[in-house]
Amino acid sequence: MGPIVFLHIPKTAGQTIHSELTRLVGPDRVSPVRVHTEAPDGAAQFPPGYDLYSGHLDWDALETLSDDRFVFSVFRNPCERIASFYFYLLKKAQTLSEEELQRPEHQGMRRIRGQSADSYFFGGDPGWQQFVHDHYDNVYCTYLATRRMRGWTQMRDLDTAARVAAAKANLPMVDRIYSTQNLGALERDIAARFDRQISVVNKFVNKGGHADDELRWPKLLERIESDANSRRLEEFAVADEELISDLGMKL
Fold first, then answer.
1. Is the whole model's pTM more than 0.85, yes or no?
2. Element (DSSP H or E) covering residue 101
C-alpha cells in the first residue's frame, strides 16, 4: 500500500485531518516535512520511506513517490477560507508582545495587527503584495496549477478562464478533492483503502475564536472601508468559485 499524501491548503480543516491520519499510520511513519519552507524544492519535500506526507507542501515532485500513493486535498468555501485565514492570523498577532512583533519573521503579524484591512490586503510594497496574493488570491487554482504553495507570480497574468484551465490540467494527479462540508467521504475512503477508521466530521481546530457555524466573510467585509477594495477582495475568490462549480462541489 502506497503512502497517503495530504496536500493541505491553510484553513481547510487540515489540523484535524493530519491528527487523525497520524493516529492511523503512527507518528514515526509521518514525514517530518510539514511546510514547504522546511525542505529544498523538488523531491526533498517528500523524503523517502514514510507512510504519510501531510502539510503545506510543494508537490511538483509528487512523481518521486510510488504509483499507488493516495493523494488528496480539501476545499472550503473560498471566501470563508480567505476570511478565516485573516482572522486566524489576527488572533495570533494579538497574542504577541510588542517586542515579539518587531522580529523580522513577524512582519505579517505587525501588519495585520497595526493596519486597516484595506492596507493589509492592498497596501505595501511589491514583496508584501506577493505575500498577500500567494496566501489569499484564488489559492485553490494557483496551488493546483503551479503545484506550489507560493505560485501566484506564475498565474498573475492569466484571466479567470486560463487559471481554471491550468488548475484542471493537473487534477488527474490528485485522487480526490473533498469538501469541508462532506468530510464523511474522506472517512469512508480511508476506511475502504486501509480497513481502519478515522474521525474528522464536525471536529474543528484553530477556529480563531469563532463559533463552528459562524460566517467569517461578512465580518471581514465589514472591516473593508472602500467599496472598490471590497470588490477587489471578492475577485480573490472568482477563479476558485468557477473551479468549484466545474467540479460540481458544494461548499
1. yes
2. helix 98-101
